[in-house]
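Appendix B, example 12.
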Amino acid sequence: MANYNEKLNILFDKWEAESIENGLTGFCRDGLMYKYGDKKNDVDELWDKSKNRILFLLKDPKEYSGDSREWLQIEENQQLRSQFLKKLAYVLYGLSNVKDGKTADFWDITHEQLVTCFNEIPFAFVESKKEAGKNEISGKELDKYINDYGDFLSDEINILKPNIVICFGGSQHHFALTKLFNDVETIDKNIHIDNETKTLIIYSYHPSARTSYESFYDEIMRQYGKFLAQESKFK
């Protein structure tokens, strides 16, 4: 069984050292989210056994967060009091609960189900730019960072070996389609599959966007539904 976060820490030591040499500060670590309490040490096994190894690929932390892998040790985050995390929980739930080839209807999902899902189902949380920024980052700035540190970012994602990557932004989506995967086939405009690794790549706007939980969830599930309709073709 792989120890994913230990491997990531070795990578982050090199990544942060290069960042510091280039004058950057505030490096934040991320990766496979630790679960609460006794389950913290089970996360590698949970990830290995998970049918859907879901990775959220985001932009950058808006403030110094240290190590986001520890977020679920905080009760406020466990209970999804943050709109940002609650939106991620909806997506995690939808991708993890498919029945008869269909995802769950938004209005059928309870808050209790979201909390249970977010605290028990393994997922990876990856910021493309590791240094804390502000409330917004321009596409030009993010593109430059990904260009400069893209090899590290590729290494991080390859260590985690997800089979679903949700790209929350155009820069991340372009990176996934052109640099991260080698044999990408288009299912629809915002959903692709890498035939070599059987990894789904889904584009979405960022969870911090001013949209309702319902529209955010439904748009990603609509894309995922296009894959489910053709799933047998890609096995």
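The chain has a mean pLDDT of 93. Residues 139-160 form the longest helix (22 residues).
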